[in-house]
Amino acid sequence: MKKFTVPQLLKMFVILLVGFTLSSCSLDNPDIPPVKLENLPGNYKGRLITIQGEIKKESIRSFKVKKDTITFEEFPINEIVKTVVKDPVKAEAALKALGKVKYNLQYKASINTPNNVLELVFAPETLTLQIPVDGTTKKTVVTLAAKQKGFYVGMDGSLRFSLIAEKITVDDAVLNPYEAINYNFPFCIKS
Q1: Which of 22, 103, 119, 171 would give a disulfide with 75, using CB separation of 3.0 to 4.6 Å?
Q2: Where are the domains positioned within the chain?
Q3: Pairing state of beta strands 158-170 and 103-112?
Protein backbone atom coordinates (compact mmCIF):
# COMPACT_ATOMS: atom_id res chain seq x y z
CA MET A 1 0.00 0.00 0.00
CA LYS A 2 1.31 3.43 -1.00
CA LYS A 3 1.70 6.08 1.69
CA PHE A 4 0.87 9.70 0.85
CA THR A 5 2.99 12.58 2.12
CA VAL A 6 1.53 15.85 3.35
CA PRO A 7 2.39 17.80 0.13
CA GLN A 8 0.74 15.08 -1.98
CA LEU A 9 -2.39 15.18 0.17
CA LEU A 10 -2.48 18.98 -0.11
CA LYS A 11 -2.18 18.81 -3.90
CA MET A 12 -4.98 16.26 -4.10
CA PHE A 13 -7.18 18.39 -1.82
CA VAL A 14 -6.57 21.54 -3.93
CA ILE A 15 -7.35 19.65 -7.16
CA LEU A 16 -10.60 18.34 -5.72
CA LEU A 17 -11.54 21.77 -4.39
CA VAL A 18 -10.87 23.43 -7.75
CA GLY A 19 -12.84 20.71 -9.53
CA PHE A 20 -15.90 21.23 -7.30
CA THR A 21 -15.62 25.00 -7.61
CA LEU A 22 -15.43 24.94 -11.41
CA SER A 23 -18.29 22.49 -11.73
CA SER A 24 -20.50 24.67 -9.57
CA CYS A 25 -19.61 27.72 -11.72
CA SER A 26 -20.69 25.94 -14.88
CA LEU A 27 -24.18 25.58 -13.42
CA ASP A 28 -24.44 29.32 -12.82
CA ASN A 29 -25.66 31.00 -15.96
CA PRO A 30 -25.35 34.77 -15.57
CA ASP A 31 -27.41 36.80 -17.98
CA ILE A 32 -24.76 38.62 -20.02
CA PRO A 33 -26.26 40.78 -22.76
CA PRO A 34 -24.70 40.33 -26.21
CA VAL A 35 -22.38 43.12 -27.35
CA LYS A 36 -23.62 45.45 -30.10
CA LEU A 37 -21.88 47.97 -32.34
CA GLU A 38 -23.97 50.68 -30.68
CA ASN A 39 -22.23 49.94 -27.34
CA LEU A 40 -18.87 51.31 -28.55
CA PRO A 41 -19.36 55.09 -29.11
CA GLY A 42 -18.84 57.40 -26.14
CA ASN A 43 -16.29 59.32 -24.10
CA TYR A 44 -13.55 57.14 -22.62
CA LYS A 45 -10.88 57.52 -20.00
CA GLY A 46 -8.16 55.00 -19.37
CA ARG A 47 -4.61 54.10 -18.62
CA LEU A 48 -1.95 54.72 -21.24
CA ILE A 49 1.33 52.85 -20.94
CA THR A 50 3.99 54.39 -23.17
CA ILE A 51 7.10 52.30 -23.79
CA GLN A 52 10.21 53.39 -25.68
CA GLY A 53 13.15 51.06 -25.25
CA GLU A 54 13.69 50.58 -21.51
CA ILE A 55 11.63 53.65 -20.56
CA LYS A 56 8.06 53.00 -19.47
CA LYS A 57 5.60 55.73 -18.43
CA GLU A 58 1.99 55.58 -17.34
CA SER A 59 -0.66 58.27 -17.54
CA ILE A 60 -4.43 58.68 -17.78
CA ARG A 61 -5.84 59.75 -21.16
CA SER A 62 -9.28 60.72 -22.40
CA PHE A 63 -10.62 60.26 -25.91
CA LYS A 64 -13.90 60.08 -27.80
CA VAL A 65 -15.11 57.12 -29.83
CA LYS A 66 -17.51 57.72 -32.71
CA LYS A 67 -18.96 55.28 -35.23
CA ASP A 68 -15.66 54.74 -37.07
CA THR A 69 -13.14 57.09 -35.41
CA ILE A 70 -11.29 57.43 -32.11
CA THR A 71 -10.51 61.11 -31.52
CA PHE A 72 -7.72 62.25 -29.24
CA GLU A 73 -8.05 65.94 -28.40
CA GLU A 74 -4.59 65.68 -26.81
CA PHE A 75 -2.49 62.96 -28.43
CA PRO A 76 0.57 61.95 -26.35
CA ILE A 77 3.49 63.56 -28.21
CA ASN A 78 6.06 63.93 -25.39
CA GLU A 79 8.20 60.98 -26.48
CA ILE A 80 8.01 62.00 -30.15
CA VAL A 81 9.19 65.55 -29.46
CA LYS A 82 11.91 64.38 -27.05
CA THR A 83 13.14 61.92 -29.68
CA VAL A 84 13.41 64.68 -32.29
CA VAL A 85 14.72 67.40 -29.94
CA LYS A 86 17.46 65.88 -27.78
CA ASP A 87 18.04 68.93 -25.55
CA PRO A 88 15.54 68.59 -22.64
CA VAL A 89 15.07 72.35 -22.18
CA LYS A 90 14.42 72.91 -25.91
CA ALA A 91 12.11 69.85 -26.00
CA GLU A 92 10.00 71.26 -23.14
CA ALA A 93 9.82 74.63 -24.91
CA ALA A 94 8.73 72.89 -28.12
CA LEU A 95 6.06 70.90 -26.28
CA LYS A 96 4.71 74.09 -24.72
CA ALA A 97 4.66 75.82 -28.12
CA LEU A 98 2.87 72.88 -29.78
CA GLY A 99 0.16 72.69 -27.13
CA LYS A 100 -2.56 70.10 -27.58
CA VAL A 101 -2.30 67.98 -30.73
CA LYS A 102 -5.49 66.43 -32.10
CA TYR A 103 -5.36 63.01 -33.80
CA ASN A 104 -8.08 60.89 -35.40
CA LEU A 105 -7.65 57.12 -35.53
CA GLN A 106 -9.90 55.38 -38.04
CA TYR A 107 -11.22 51.87 -37.34
CA LYS A 108 -13.69 49.25 -38.53
CA ALA A 109 -15.55 47.23 -35.92
CA SER A 110 -17.04 43.76 -36.23
CA ILE A 111 -18.86 41.56 -33.73
CA ASN A 112 -17.20 38.41 -32.43
CA THR A 113 -20.31 36.70 -31.03
CA PRO A 114 -18.69 33.62 -29.41
CA ASN A 115 -16.39 35.85 -27.31
CA ASN A 116 -18.95 38.65 -26.83
CA VAL A 117 -16.49 41.32 -28.02
CA LEU A 118 -16.21 43.88 -30.77
CA GLU A 119 -13.00 43.55 -32.76
CA LEU A 120 -11.49 46.79 -34.05
CA VAL A 121 -9.19 46.88 -37.06
CA PHE A 122 -7.33 50.19 -37.22
CA ALA A 123 -6.19 52.27 -40.19
CA PRO A 124 -3.79 54.79 -38.61
CA GLU A 125 -2.74 57.80 -40.64
CA THR A 126 0.55 59.63 -40.26
CA LEU A 127 0.81 62.37 -37.67
CA THR A 128 2.48 65.57 -38.90
CA LEU A 129 3.98 68.04 -36.45
CA GLN A 130 5.79 71.34 -36.97
CA ILE A 131 8.22 71.26 -34.04
CA PRO A 132 9.73 74.68 -33.26
CA VAL A 133 13.46 74.56 -32.41
CA ASP A 134 15.93 77.46 -32.32
CA GLY A 135 13.74 79.81 -34.37
CA THR A 136 13.02 77.23 -37.10
CA THR A 137 10.50 74.44 -37.44
CA LYS A 138 11.26 70.79 -38.01
CA LYS A 139 8.63 69.13 -40.17
CA THR A 140 8.11 65.84 -38.36
CA VAL A 141 6.06 63.00 -39.84
CA VAL A 142 5.27 60.09 -37.52
CA THR A 143 4.25 56.79 -39.10
CA LEU A 144 1.77 55.09 -36.77
CA ALA A 145 0.68 51.46 -37.03
CA ALA A 146 -1.59 49.05 -35.21
CA LYS A 147 0.01 45.60 -35.15
CA GLN A 148 -2.99 43.94 -33.50
CA LYS A 149 -6.73 44.34 -33.26
CA GLY A 150 -8.39 46.34 -30.54
CA PHE A 151 -11.25 44.98 -28.47
CA TYR A 152 -14.39 46.30 -26.83
CA VAL A 153 -15.28 43.70 -24.20
CA GLY A 154 -19.02 43.29 -23.70
CA MET A 155 -18.66 41.72 -20.26
CA ASP A 156 -17.18 44.82 -18.58
CA GLY A 157 -17.67 47.53 -21.23
CA SER A 158 -13.93 48.18 -21.57
CA LEU A 159 -11.95 49.20 -24.63
CA ARG A 160 -8.41 47.88 -25.18
CA PHE A 161 -6.00 48.69 -28.01
CA SER A 162 -2.45 49.68 -28.86
CA LEU A 163 -0.53 51.75 -31.40
CA ILE A 164 3.11 51.99 -32.33
CA ALA A 165 5.07 54.93 -33.73
CA GLU A 166 7.15 52.85 -36.16
CA LYS A 167 9.10 55.56 -37.90
CA ILE A 168 9.78 59.29 -37.59
CA THR A 169 10.85 61.44 -40.51
CA VAL A 170 12.32 64.89 -39.79
CA ASP A 171 12.62 67.32 -42.72
CA ASP A 172 12.29 64.38 -45.17
CA ALA A 173 15.10 62.40 -43.49
CA VAL A 174 14.30 59.20 -41.60
CA LEU A 175 15.38 59.47 -37.98
CA ASN A 176 18.09 56.90 -37.38
CA PRO A 177 18.80 55.44 -34.87
CA TYR A 178 15.25 55.33 -33.57
CA GLU A 179 13.50 53.17 -30.97
CA ALA A 180 9.80 52.67 -31.68
CA ILE A 181 7.28 54.20 -29.28
CA ASN A 182 4.51 51.85 -28.10
CA TYR A 183 1.20 53.30 -26.93
CA ASN A 184 -0.78 50.68 -24.99
CA PHE A 185 -4.31 51.31 -23.75
CA PRO A 186 -4.91 48.13 -21.70
CA PHE A 187 -8.17 49.17 -20.00
CA CYS A 188 -10.36 52.16 -20.90
CA ILE A 189 -13.92 52.72 -19.75
CA LYS A 190 -16.64 55.21 -20.55
CA SER A 191 -16.41 58.31 -18.42
Answers
A1: 103
A2: 37-190
A3: unpaired
